[in-house]
């Protein structure tokens, strides 16, 4: 019982789904309608869902607990505790707690905002559904959210139909049809009958498969099979249906929607991984410095300390031991030098990434006005990775092409139609034709009028074999709701040639054939899937003859055909492979079969038995489908022909691919289409060109064939240069362990790779293969549900919001409307993000080393006593006030070249691919520069002021004046350095840099003023130190000398490097400024 209530007490954390005690052992679910006593025995989840992490009481403790699980935050909490020990700390506690509190507060505000949004979304279902339990029967009304996973019992529509919008599940906005069983649809809205309904559902246990459901309804001594078409899933919205009744099968956390709320794989950039390594290095470096200074303290205590204590500074006996003194000093220096570990680094990085994401969202040049679709950064963690992409894996249909299908050509009984340049428009043979339909061949219309049997049977198949739903709108307008553009195009073609699909019921399909209404009895639908690659329907015509109509991929269908005329099969194959695929058209083969009644009745009986099973139902159905379609190899069958659908290229695809290729990005096309179709599209978008040396085709149908092709070919024929292309026709065995290496090695020798006949799983396997073996940054782009696995596998996933719904977008990291926007996403936003982040990190580490290591040098002159150089308030404010905003401005707005030149010179993208701007070597160099700056900051003022005097002859070498001099020098040097690092100046950069200097001097004089001393005398005891020190010319001369010595070497090195070893950026700047005449390559 305790487990049952545990999830109510603990916050839900996104990826964690509480389970019942026996959830892992539930093999099937038994649910009785209107019987809570029976259902409660199984401890099924109720409908209460807590999607928020926090409430008003738990927010603070839980959020703090989560934040202190991060190593950096826990480390600084440990330092804060150390600072409370007087024998260890020489710094006040506020030097650590102020920056730590700021970091914790910013993160807490972000977490609270995200949680509030999640609560607001959850309230959409309303509290009234919380008491719903498994087995209850509930009523839904039009435009209402489905509150749980329901078995549809009855509805206001004929035949128990209901329409739902599934945008919250799969992103698709077109309506889906769900249909109740005939036996339950008779319950209607009769409350008395519904209350007495006592059916039992035996079904699969809770799972996350949105498109699959297997179960059986036991009622009135009958067994009725249940599938996904009988289920209303939580998250859907009831549309165009006045009311419906449903029985709750899964509730709450066991619904398919919530089962899909598992933990999403968190993608990290290469810079993230490098930063984690570098922070560990810094920890190690900090420990080494602490040990060196602790040893120095022990030696000093033993040799000098005793005499020093007797004369100047008497200590307690407990500290007289040199080793123990060194031990305490070690922890004291760990506290003092802690600023070398950047506590604010991760927060600053997230702020910069958030800004870069907004820049992508706000980019009007990536906005598609026709679809009202802006670009969207759906994550904020991968922006700089966009500047390091080496491989792009692209779907073809809907990504490179528009996915707006047009019935272009067809082959019927060995004759091609649609090759003539004559335009036939609108209604061809009926009054229900569409104004937008175009077909370029009048002879097909003539063949229809001449009553050619094959032609009529061809369009009859197109009108019957589909899952389209018709919808009669205002003024008699007939609209088709199709789940794919291909189906819509084929049914529309049949409609315009006189075979108008008008109505569908669970048992019938009505088609107007040349103006005459004909109703077919629908006996069975053999569904399409990515494995079968075909769809069939079995219907009985008014004459009583049962017939199978089938359409599918030609390679699948032709294996099941043995036509009486071998010539027809060869002719149709030639049309498909040469005439249609050669033009880049999408093709399907069509066939039918007259069924023997005895065989059909026996087959139907076995089908009904398979549908009544819960276990292994899908395997049995697949076997039965195969048996029915395999029997097309015997008598009474015929090949009707083939269809060819045109899917035009998206705007700007060829130019985008050419530009990305110049940026040394390798583009692989992964498509399920025929090889000839894919090759033709590749030529259209300039991936293949006539001047390429070789197009190398690998299309073996066995492991042995592939090995022979890869290893026994003439070496002169193998791809051997950047102007080669390899075309891979992937069979199931092509990605086996013993072949994947050969496949990848061959493909990577070429500029262009096209993989044909690829399944969705193989797409993901190809991406994973390149990720694993090449260790390169990969990007996958697609628009459909079959691209989701590929998008999730790649380092960066991009979704195209096109004609196939929003599944790809929902799974993606970035989305936009057209492929051509990828050029701007990578070459402008990606390159800038990488450039800015690298510059930010180099400067951040530089200033932290320069700031912190001054204490290390000072340790050798203060008896290793852990005395600080700076004032404590300066230590507190340096990173969070004096230098925070200028570096953020640089990380957000800096540009080495403008957006026009970023696209004009694609070679500028290469430094990101080679990881040149920030790596371990660059970290070492910026750390070395920081160490040099700290050395200069300490020793120049120390040497210059050691014997220095004021204008009145007084000594200026007191510790506070020395601290003010070094602090002022540091702030000025840091400001000058960021000015040198800034390539693109904006008003914001000027304001932040000059403003930070002004804030520093304002706070400095305020902290040494009489007024603040009067308020806090113990915290600000050094009255007038800043005014006294900075009024002396010698101090300003020291500051100037220090600044020049710190900055001059940087200027010299950068000048010589740009002159002797110019980068691509240097060359582009030279060309665009008009100084140079030669244009850099690329």
UniProtKB/TrEMBL annotation:
Keyword terms, alphabetized: ATP-binding, Cell membrane, Cell projection, Endoplasmic reticulum, Golgi apparatus, Lipid transport, Magnesium, Membrane, Metal-binding, Nucleotide-binding, Translocase, Transmembrane, Transmembrane helix, Transport
Q: What class of enzyme is it?
A: translocase
Q: Which domain of life is it from?
A: Eukaryota
Detail which positions bind Mg(2+). 395, 397, 783, 787
- One Pfam family matching this protein: Cation_ATPase
Any GO molecular function: phospholipid transporter activity
Question: Where in or outside the cell is it found?
Answer: Apical cell membrane; Cell membrane; Cell projection; Endoplasmic reticulum
PROSITE patterns from the entry? Answer: ATPASE_E1_E2
Asked if the keyword Magnesium belongs to this entry, the reply reads: yes
Q: Where along the chain is the active site annotated?
A: 395 (4-aspartylphosphate intermediate)
Task: Cite a GO CC annotation.
Answer: cell projection
Give the Gene3D superfamilies listed for this entry.
Calcium-transporting ATPase, cytoplasmic domain N, Calcium-transporting ATPase, cytoplasmic transduction domain A, HAD superfamily/HAD-like
Does the UniProt entry include the keyword Transmembrane? yes
Q: Give the P-type ATPase N-terminal domain ranges.
A: 31-97
InterPro entries membership: ATPase_P-typ_cyto_dom_N, ATPase_P-typ_P_site, ATPase_P-typ_TM_dom_sf, ATPase_P-typ_transduc_dom_A_sf, HAD-like_sf, HAD_sf, P-type_ATPase_IV, P-type_ATPase_N
Protein name (record): Phospholipid-transporting ATPase
Q: Give the organism's phylogenetic lineage.
A: Eukaryota, Metazoa, Chordata, Craniata, Vertebrata
